[in-house]
């Protein structure tokens, strides 16, 4: 039986693998169409956090990273001081402080932040329609449609990747929240998982000790799927 820490590690690896796949597709899309954000744009981030909805699942790798670095409490304090009308707590407006994108943890940003402006939807007739931001639409819409019609590039379909994320854990991805709320819940959930992992490890040590003494002790209950986030 895997401990919670090991389970969480395997799960995060699957999600990060999916994120890497998206990044590779977007990179090819940029290269073949010239589609790229304007330097230091950050327009998509300059909006109330209620307009950026993500699942708890999408932010679990970031939450785990914050615990590993010992800064989870710091970010929880920052989140406690924000509302859904504020910008995303991870948003860095200064391109000097954060040259690559506006996210302080760019490599661990959620699904919607990776695909915004670089994805498509499937119409009822089965055709693919690029969904670009208002800025990119003015300058790159024709080149993207041309590349798609000539089948020289594959554009990520938002619904397909959202479904793949959902399949990793239907419970944690069944609901979307404003990004600040989702991050807070992800940190809380990761905290519970870490606590459970420590308790399970402690119970294992106790079990071995008692068995060595000739006493019987039933195995501890697997509570991995019973953690609830409220």
Tell me the total number of β-strands. Answer: 4
If helices are DSSP runs of H or I spanning 4 or more residues, what is the number of helices?
A: 8
Could you tell me the mean pLDDT? Answer: 79
Total discrete domains: 1
Shape: globular
Describe the structure.
It is a single chain. The protein has one domain (4-204). It is 51% helix and 5% strand. The chain is built from 8 helices and 4 strands. The protein has helices at residues 4-33, 60-68, 72-80, 111-115, 134-149, 158-168, 170-173, 179-212; strands at residues 53-54, 119-122, 128-131, 177-178. A two-stranded antiparallel ribbon has the order 1-4. Strands 2-3 form a two-stranded antiparallel ribbon. Helix 1 runs antiparallel to helix 6. The chain is globular and about 55 Å long.
Summarize the structure.
By secondary structure, this protein is mainly α. The chain has helices spanning 4-33, 60-68, 72-80, 111-115, 134-149, 158-168, 170-173, 179-212; strands at residues 53-54, 119-122, 128-131, 177-178.
List the helices and strands and how they pair.
Blueprint: H1 4-33, E1 53-54, H2 60-68, H3 72-80, H4 111-115, E2 119-122, E3 128-131, H5 134-149, H6 158-168, H7 170-173, E4 177-178, H8 179-212
Antiparallel strand pairs: 1-4, 2-3
Helix pairs in contact: 1-6, 2-8, 3-8
């Amino acid at each position: 039986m895997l401990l919670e820490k090991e389970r969480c590690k395997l799960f995060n690896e699957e999600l990060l693998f999916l994120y890497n796949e998206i990044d590779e597709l977007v990179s090819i899309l940029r290269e073949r169409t010239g589609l790229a954000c304007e330097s230091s744009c950050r327009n998509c981030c300059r909006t109330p956090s209620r307009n950026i909805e993500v699942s708890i699942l999408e932010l679990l790798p970031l939450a785990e990273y914050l615990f590993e670095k010992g800064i989870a409490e710091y970010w929880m304090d920052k989140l406690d001081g924000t509302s859904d009308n504020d910008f995303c707590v991870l948003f860095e407006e200064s391109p000097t402080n954060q040259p690559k994108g506006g996210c302080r943890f760019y490599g661990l940003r959620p699904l919607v932040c990776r695909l915004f402006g670089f994805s498509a939807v499937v119409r009822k007739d089965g055709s693919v329609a690029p969904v670009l931001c208002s800025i990119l639409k003015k300058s790159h819409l024709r080149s993207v449609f041309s590349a798609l019609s000539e089948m020289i590039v594959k554009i990520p379909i938002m619904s397909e990747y959202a479904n793949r994320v959902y399949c990793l854990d239907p419970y944690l991805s069944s609901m979307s929240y404003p990004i600040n709320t989702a991050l807070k819940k992800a940190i809380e959930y990761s905290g519970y998982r870490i606590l459970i992992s420590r308790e399970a490890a402690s119970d294992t040590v106790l079990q071995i000790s008692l068995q060595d003494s000739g006493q019987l002790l039933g195995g501890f209950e697997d509570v991995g799927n019973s953690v609830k986030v409220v």
